[in-house]
Design brief:
heterodimer; A: about 180 residues; mainly alpha; 2 domains; about 80% helix; about 0% strand; rod-shaped; disordered C terminus; B: about 180 residues; Rna Polymerase Sigma Factor, Chain: A; Arc Repressor Mutant, subunit A; about 75% helix
Chain lengths: ~180, ~180
Amino acid sequence: MMRTNEEYKDLIDSFIKGNLSASDTAQLNNEALHHAQLQGEMDLQKSIVESLKASRKAELKARLQAIEVAPVASSHLWKYAAVVCGLLLTGVATYYFSTVKEQGSEEAEVTHIPLSLQENTATKSEVAPLAIEEPISNADSERKQTESSVVKNTKKETKKGGRATGTRSGSAFIA
Amino acid sequence: MNDQEILDRIKKGDESALDFLYKKNYKMMVNMIIKNNGTEEEAKDVYQEALLAFWQKAASGRLEMTSKISTYIYSICQNLWRKELDRKSRLRHEEKDGSVTDGHDEQERVKIINQCINELGETCKKILFYFYYDDYSMEEIAEKLGFANADTAKTKKYKCKKELDKLIKTKFSSQDFLD
């Protein structure tokens, strides 16, 4: 039984809105297979309804887009900035303290130089009692340390023009 | 405003309830997407889509809430963002394969239909929007637009749709469709 165009339009409208029963949907699809104009109308109505929905959606989206909200990304940026600042501070602090440490050890060496220079200039009789006062158990290791510092000092002194000789400073402790 | 009040207001078509929800949950939803490799613009878009999907369901009365509204919207956001990531990944592969298809004819058809929708009067547009997108009943449309009753709304909807069909069909070859 053929329907009128108006009946078909109502049927298509119900079909698009999902209000058609399964059997009516199957029947409509079957009729559309043998009726090119009906198929064309169904395709067009689907496009129209989709466009109507898209227009309404765009309208509501424009409404939401117009609402002012605090950007979330900026709060993330602040967090990143804080992390970067923290890392920078840690780096600077590490660099500062390591430099201070190096300077400290250099100063220790520098303060040691006059002592060794004193040792160099001192007579054997003046230095000898100091070596005797060292504890016997630590004597070997202390001797090694002293010898290495003497070698260092000797090198420095050699650079400075060989104002003192290794044998002179060494002989002061051996005695 | 609690969840039930929000749902009631959406059901009545009060769009300020949408604004309220948008502002209330903005940070939580956008944060979730940004943390999952999204930009704020993408996050905003997905959140708006999710909120409108919720609106559509709530307005039509087809929504049965078993959780908080924010939890429901959050799960829509997650699903939409997952889909978007899949789409992006597919797009990258298609670009590599050179298999991007163009629906030029369909785009042209949509463009013409949109032009015709914009030629409709404001009331006609609203009736058709409320009927097809928001899925309001004829009683609700009548109440929202101040018509006497549901029958008046139904007649108006019929006339508006006919006008739109006519406008569109004049721009296509008429033998392709029903009169």
